[in-house]
Amino acid sequence: MAPLGYMLLATTIAYGISIYRRRYHNKKKEEHTIENKKEYFESHIRIPSFAVAAVIGKRGSVLRQIMAETQTECKIVQVSQGDSWNIETTHDYWNEENEKPTDEKYLLIRTNKKEKVDLVKLRVSEIIANVKDGFKKIEFLIDSDLIGYAVGKGGRNVRKISAAYNVFIHISKPLEDDPTKALVTVEGRDPKTLEKVELIIKETKYNRQENRQSCGLYENVEEELDDIDEIRKMIENS
To answer: Strand 41-46 vs strand 89-90: parallel, antiparallel, or unpaired?
Structure first.
């Protein structure tokens, strides 16, 4: 009888362990399912070209610190004109263009709370403000019918000049007190560079004015970009 008793005891213990393991497995499975069903939010913050390196930091140190402080997942992504997905961006003082830009750097934020996006936004704005600290600024007027040409299709011209000279450019809408004019603001660290950029933008009035459409856009965008390159080389060689 003793061996039979031991067998029954062993069977009971094994059965109990089996039930425990099954319940434990089901519980973990439910927790995993609940975790997967948690709502996550994604947001994009456009990063101006002059501040991308500062936001990333050396070997990604700044970006990792931002993620640790805000408990979010962040990464720099580049969005091109051919991308099929829509982007809802956070607009700030460094992102004032009316058109959605293309081929731009964005900070993709993924989090389970919308409030954390604001924390990332605040941290990024502080970094950009520090980078811009010490920038010089010039302002000048252009004819409002040149806005489209100066900005370029999808903002190409402004971005190309900004990248070439490491400056920040903003072109306003037609002025309320004088709709024939628009205000151009250029910010950068080198005053001479700002003067060059001013000349390049102002030269748009004369270079291919006869080919400009009434809205201010070239029919051939690549042609207008080549034209800007020629002007830049001419200025640099002068």
So the answer is: parallel
